[in-house]
């Protein structure tokens, strides 16, 4: 297709060069004005007919002052005044520029599209011991699908085979394979890395994570940034205005000469200058490059696992000066871990508690089991005391493990400072005597501290944490991450009140949360960011930006991409308007010809488009 796009311009260019060379050497066959007119008209038609057709179609729909109309009028006007080579050149280079622009735009769209083409065209469904190939649209929740190493997961599903590694780069931008445990959810688009896996489908194809991503990127182009909306409105007013000014360029000098001022008016000269003015005035550099800049920014973010739901949110992200994080699941893993043990024999205490809680699915029990080393200890007569903990017999001794209220119920004396502990505690008693205590806490994510550092590096002035956890625990996390403030013991309305307080202070706030419990705050913030929530309806619906990994450092990456996109937009605006105004003034003064006008229009537009796509191909 690209080769065919250049066939007509190549023919016109060859005929133009032959004509220019023949005129330069005074070739006999080219001395007749009629021959020259016919020759250049033939050179003009391959590139001019398509543009004039577009101009007619636009005019029939009410868009009379389109760029196609301007180029058609300018080139036909050049024929009228006998500037045949320039008439062909105007349309030729315009068409070449438009083709190159279309190629740049298509390349950006293809890159976006390649990011979205995650889902294979079939799913291997397990039915009665055999595997049947079906369309993903025909697979229903509850069906079991099989995925071989190197194949893409066709639908969102629960992993029912053993733990397995998956390549998640298409969804998250992460290059390192991710191990997913049995029972956890695997998203469509991931690639099985090292073994055959089986999944139980949890939602239909139309509601999968991939389908949501596709819809979000598709809808993003409809949500325009303020700069895009301004340029569209500007072009509607600007184009008729410059046509009127071009007409005035021809008429005003004539009226001046008729006023008896002694001014010698030459219609050809001023008509030529008006044509230059028309060619330069085409606003295509702005109309094309600015939306493409935002499109490139959205694509660059998507490539890195960050989904902006519109150019307007990309623009809003550039103004963020305050970032507020939810704690659990955002800065922390959302999973308990044993962080400290008080007691005479810490290892033995953890092993004993793990044996007592072995039959429980409670998150605390799982955390203790993960920390235990000796799995051979056996607990007998295990009894659950609802709201308090567990009692059991281990090695002939009676144990009680659980809350401080259990210790009080059992009449066990314990250190009173445990009541003010920030962590979740599991107190232990053996035969009615305090034996020790396990301290559990939600551990920080690996890059939580780096996320705060990166936000400071990109110019974010304030970072806060809002959480419903105990204030002492929030203070501990805030101190570890060196944030400006940590607010704990907050109900949802408390988070909303703090957000309103920040906004009343004139701050542009981005809130980062899980998108489910924090929906009111996400909606209230200037930019709502949901993390690792592709499977959550509330996240997709409420948040303005969705980060597809559990890495809070991606927030700073999103801000960097947004600000780089804005810089490119500003560069294009300044460059396009600056060059156009300069050549426009030179044209009115008779110091610029149609060749300069072609560069000021087509050349500037092409350079602006190439500059706009720079953000998408940036490797940093």
Taking the alpha carbons of the first and last residues, their distance comes to 32 Å
Question: What percent of the residues sit in helical stretches (DSSP H or I)?
Answer: 40-55%
Write down the overall geometry.
elongated
Radius of gyration: 34 Å
- Count of alpha and pi helical runs: 21
Strand arrangement, largest sheet?
10-22-21-20-11-18-19
Share of residues in strands: 15-25%
Low-confidence stretches: none
Task: Specify the structural class.
Answer: alpha+beta
Number of strands: 22
Biggest β-sheet, characterized?
7 strands, mixed
Give a structural overview.
- The chain has 620 residues and is α+β, with helices and mostly antiparallel strands.
- It is built from 21 helices and 22 strands.
- The strands form 4 sheets. A 7-stranded mixed sheet has the order 10-22-21-20-11-18-19, with helices on both faces. Strands 2-1-3-9-4-7 form a 6-stranded antiparallel sheet, with no helix packed on it. A 6-stranded antiparallel sheet has the order 12-17-16-15-14-13.
- Helix 2 packs antiparallel against helix 3.
- The longest helix has 35 residues, at 554-588.
- It is elongated, with a radius of gyration of 34 Å.
- The model has no long low-confidence stretch (mean pLDDT 81).
Throw out a few tags for this protein:
alpha+beta, 22 strands, six-stranded antiparallel β-sheet, 620 residues, seven-stranded mixed β-sheet, elongated
What's the short story on this structure?
This protein has 620 residues and is α+β, with helices and mostly antiparallel strands.
